[in-house]
Amino acid sequence: MQIDNTPLPNSAVVEAAPPPLQSAPPVDQAAPTQRPRARVRHRTYISEFAESLLVTILIALFGTTFILQAFKIPSESMQPTLLIGDYLLVNKFIFEGHGAWYERFLPYRPIQRGDIIVFKFPFDDHQHYVKRVVGLPGDRVRIVDQRVYVNGAPLAEPYVVHDPAFEDPFGDNFPPTSQNFFRMGVRPEWADQILDQVVRGELVVPPDHYFALGDNRDRSLDSRYWGFVSRDSIMGRPMIVYWSVRAVSSDYADRGLYSTIYRMIDTARHIGTRTRWHRLFHTVH
């Protein structure tokens, strides 16, 4: 799934002009004409405004690059944890693992099993997806009768829901153990290599990669269908729902400019009735 004041400058300070001379000098010896004070003040105001605007832009770019970024939820794959129409603030200042020198000085931590992550989808236009980490690098993952096992032990998943009315080929048992498996919905690239990652009936997560699933297990296209999430593609962890609006998946199917503008105007007109007020500032776990 994918998941979108400049301070006023200080008053300009202009030095006072020198007092007028007692008698005017001859025309050919007149002092140069002084620059009008209004023009000096105007240019000073523009330069200070431009400086303040530049600082604001730099701070905003720094914040969205390293600290926080906003995303919306357009599909049901993470319900009931995340609902269609939830608007999230994603903490990008949390996970270590890029190997940057500054990681040792900042409060980064490793990605943990159970973390919800936002990442770039490994195929197509690299839109943003949100899933929950189930397998860490080196883990052995297997699903038996809808129960997830990691390294041979059942994984506690109180957040997972199943839909008995929906048939999920990989929902009951995973991974496949032979070439004769149901490939509908599976990325061709993943279908060709999945068996190479299977050892004695378990899927082994390679280094610097993660196995991620949706909480709405039977209605989620996740690592079972397209493969592992690389560390480099992970952007951060959803922190809080800052706004939530009642919506369905079809509301976000068309991402064209006209449809986007129409949705914004329509939502603004009905903001009072469509807002899920109880989800505002809801923390994400």
Task: Walk me through what this model shows.
The protein has 285 residues and is α+β, with helices and mostly antiparallel strands. It has a single domain, classed as Ribbon (Umud Fragment, subunit A), CATH 2.10.109. It is built from five helices and 14 strands. The strands form two sheets. Strands 1, 2, 3, 4, 11, 12, 13 and 14 form an eight-stranded antiparallel beta sheet that branches. A hairpin with a 7-residue loop joins β3 and β4. The radius of gyration is 28 Å and the shape is globular. The chain starts with 36 loop residues before the first helix and ends with a strand. About 10% of the residues have low confidence.
Concise synopsis of the structure shown:
The chain has 285 residues and is α+β, with helices and mostly antiparallel strands. It has one domain (65-283): Umud Fragment, subunit A, CATH 2.10.109. The chain is built from 5 helices and 14 strands.
According to CATH, what is the topology? Umud Fragment, subunit A
Q: Could you tell me the radius of gyration in angstroms?
A: 28 Å
Coarse structural class: alpha+beta
CATH architecture: Ribbon
Shape: globular
Whole-number average pLDDT? 82
Q: What is the percent of helical residues?
A: 10-25%
Low-confidence stretches: 4-31
Q: How is the biggest beta sheet arranged? A: 8 strands, antiparallel
Number of strands: 14
According to CATH, what is the class?
Answer: Mainly Beta
H-E string: HEEEEEEEEHEEEHEEHHE
CATH level 4 superfamily:
Umud Fragment, subunit A
How many DSSP H or I helices? 5
Whole-number total of structural domains: 1
Task: State the separation between the terminal residues, measured CA to CA.
Answer: 18 Å
